[in-house]
Design goal:
The chain has 391 residues and is of the alpha+beta class. It has 11 helices and 18 strands.
Length: 391
């Protein structure tokens, strides 16, 4: 009975959308060639500029290397540094061939000082060779993380013709990694003492917001990158009382530009959005087929903004914002053998209110909906409070 109630209410809400909406102010000019914001908890896309364009990531590749190594080795493992690792080009922590360091220290050198030599040592220890590591990393990213357009040739991010990712994929990889407590600690180290045979020093994080050189209290971690082919790349995580987001900016021509972009996107993502969800009791119908939810579908929407939902015959439900930009896509399960006895929901419709916002859809719905709810109340049926379904 509960699912039928939800379906009927959904059909009531569908026809009308409130004309009054608070304008969502988007960031001004973004210098980076590609940029994205996603909610790291719901996966919703909050902003995208060329978010699915293939780009060279440079050292933000190390985010993927770190989470793979954390999940496939032990932080207490002792790693002997090979000649190959010690000779790695680019940014290093000056590892000496033959010395032994813990996996934890190598991961710190990888993420804080962007050590390419640490990346090679980690790869060799974790899977036996750099090639085996990269092969398994690519498989892991596709099967476990769910990226669509990423292929890495190495564990550190030095240029490779077939070494690429997208801002969206990097945001997904980072969001996945942030679920791991050990990774979160690595991602937020501002400085640390480094002691090894080749180098005794204090390492400072190269990400200016993590280091504190550019103050932004909500920032919880980050990784930067740079090679000539990619220019500047930057991944930043941040959270406040309401949201946790990941911002990825790629191919900016200067540090000033990429941090300017990141600040704008952080301001926008943390202040213009709120979380909501479609309850698992909801039933969607299209062309005589009912589609069931196995669990609540969380998503993130502009504050007081409109959400457009589109249901395909395949069962794919896509949510779009008021600018018709994709925010989230998920697959629904068709209910086999269930007769359709109610009016079918529109395949593509706009929602604001009971299921997709915090305001009513319009005065046109008020009286029939009140009458319907009154009848349910008289019948002793318990329904949830209209206007919100936040737990």
């Amino acid at each position: 009975m509960k699912k039928v109630i939800v379906l009927i209410l959904l059909c009531f809400i569908t026809p009308s959308v409130s004309a009054q909406q608070n304008a969502v102010k988007k960031p001004g000019h973004i210098y980076s060639d590609s940029a994205i914001i996603i909610d790291s908890k719901t996966g919703s896309i909050l902003y995208s500029k060329n978010g699915t364009k293939r780009m060279n990531p440079a050292s933000i590749t190390k985010i993927a290397t770190a989470i793979y190594a954390i999940q496939h080795s032990d932080l207490g493992d002792l790693v002997q540094i090979s000649e190959k690792a010690s000779r790695t080009e680019g940014s290093t922590v000056y590892l000496a061939a033959g010395e032994t360091l813990s996996m934890e220290q190598l991961l710190q050198g990888l993420m804080v000082n962007s050590g390419n030599d640490a990346a090679v040592a980690i790869a060799e220890h974790t899977e036996g060779s750099v090639k085996k590591f990269v092969d398994k990393l690519n498989l892991f990213l596709k099967e476990e993380v769910g990226v669509r357009d990423t292929h890495f040739e190495n564990p550190h991010g030095l240029y490779g013709k077939n070494h690429y990712t997208t801002a969206y994929d990097m945001a997904k990889i980072t969001s996945y990694a942030l679920q791991n407590e050990q990774f979160r600690k690595l991602f937020d180290i501002d400085s640390l003492d480094w002691k090894a045979e080749g180098w005794n020093t204090t390492l400072f994080n190269h990400h200016k917001m993590v280091k504190g050189e550019i103050p932004y209290p909500e920032v919880t971690g980050g990784k930067n990158g740079f090679i000539d082919e990619s220019r500047h790349t930057l991944v930043t995580s941040a959270e406040n009382d309401n949201l946790s987001i990941v911002v990825v900016t790629m191919k900016a021509q200067s540090k000033r530009a990429i941090y300017s972009d990141t600040r704008k996107l952080l301001d926008y993502g943390l202040n213009q959005f709120e979380r909501n969800y479609i309850p698992k009791e909801t039933v969607f119908q299209l062309n005589g087929t009912s589609y069931d939810l196995k669990k609540d579908i969380p998503f993130t929407q502009p504050v007081n903004g409109k959400i457009i939902q589109k249901l395909e015959a395949s069962g794919e439900l896509t949510l779009y914002n008021q600018d018709h930009e994709e925010m989230l896509s998920t697959n629904l399960t068709p209910v086999e053998g269930t007769p359709v006895t109610h009016t079918e929901a529109v395949a593509s419709s706009e929602h604001k209110g009971l299921f997709f916002g915090k305001e009513w859809s319009g005065q046109l719905l008020f009286y029939p909906l009140m009458i319907y709810l009154a009848l349910l109340f008289i019948a002793g049926v318990s329904v949830f409070r209209p206007g919100s379904f936040t737990k």
